[in-house]
Backbone:
């Protein structure tokens, strides 16, 4: 660095110190945080837990089981058999027993068909209910993910605001330090001039 460049740099630094000292004049009294940092930021309100229109899980409503009354009544409907084949033919108990057996077999077939239908409907209702429960839980998880993303964005915004406020505070401290150094240099210069006059 040549002497001219050095002198130019020294003059530039002296002017910067002079500007900082002039800006710091009359600022010895304490300032409020609002004057330095500005108004405090408004805090965001977190979103509601769950959306108001979110669907609730429906109650489990399986189909009603088939009625067993017809089979339970028809299996004993034949009455007692007569003691012998010939006596049964004479009093008609064999025919009654045969008709009762036919009625019971018919009721049993109807019950078997109703049971098969009921089991199929029960499985279908179970699958529908589980699908509804899973869809509702997925919707709730999506709401939770949305809230987490909003909170994450809010946190990032607060961190950025905090960094800006720290920069302002550090800048204020640096400004005060430069002003004090400039005032100290000016005081030393005045003291040196005073010593020269006295000496």
Residues:
């Amino acid at each position: 660095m040549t002497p001219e460049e050095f002198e130019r740099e020294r003059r530039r630094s002296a002017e910067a110190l002079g500007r900082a000292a002039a800006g710091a004049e009359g600022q010895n009294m304490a300032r409020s945080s609002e004057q330095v940092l500005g108004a405090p930021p408004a805090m965001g309100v977190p979103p509601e837990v769950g959306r108001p229109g979110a669907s609730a899980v429906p109650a489990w409503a399986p189909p009603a089981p088939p009625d067993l009354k017809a089979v339970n009544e028809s299996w004993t409907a034949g009455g007692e058999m007569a003691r012998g084949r010939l006596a049964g033919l004479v009093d008609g108990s064999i025919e009654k027993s045969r008709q009762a057996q036919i009625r019971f077999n018919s009721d049993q077939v109807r019950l078997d068909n109703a049971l098969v239908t009921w089991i199929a409907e029960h499985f279908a209702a179970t699958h529908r209910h589980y699908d509804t429960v899973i869809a509702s839980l997925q919707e709730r998880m999506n709401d939770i993910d949305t809230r987490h993303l909003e909170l994450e964005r809010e946190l990032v915004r607060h961190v950025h605001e905090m960094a800006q406020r720290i920069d302002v505070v550090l800048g204020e401290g640096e400004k005060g330090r430069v002003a004090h150094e400039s005032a100290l240099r000016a005081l030393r210069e005045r003291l040196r001039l005073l010593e020269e006059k006295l000496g």
In short: The two ends are 36 Å apart (CA to CA). DSSP finds five helices and no strands in the chain. The chain has a mean pLDDT of 76. The helical segments are 3-24, 33-37, 69-74, 85-91, 93-198.
